[in-house]
Specification:
Blueprint (H helix, E strand, L loop, with lengths): L15 H10 L6 H19 L4 H22 L1
Helix pairs in contact: 1-2, 2-3
């Protein structure tokens, strides 16, 4: 399964440092567009569950998503 690339969808600048940090952390594992989508999903999920989405919470959720995704890709190989 290959990752598709697309343009970034995160428009809120509060999350740009989160995307940068996780893109660096997962460099060589996930494309930046995948990181951006995970950050977006984490933000929306946090907003639905808690009513807000602090960048540090979004970072933790997105990191867990990216780690699980990396494990899934590794198992397919």
């Amino acid at each position: 399964m290959t990752e598709t690339t697309s343009t970034a969808t995160t428009t809120d600048e509060r999350y740009a440092p989160v995307v940068e940090l996780l893109s660096s952390e997962f460099s060589g594992v996930h494309h930046e567009s995948t990181v951006t989508r995970c950050v977006d999903a984490a933000r929306h999920g946090a907003e639905e569950v808690t009513g807000s989405a602090a960048p540090d919470l979004v970072e933790r959720i997105a990191r867990q998503h990216l780690q699980v995704l990396a494990l899934a890709f590794a198992e397919q190989r």
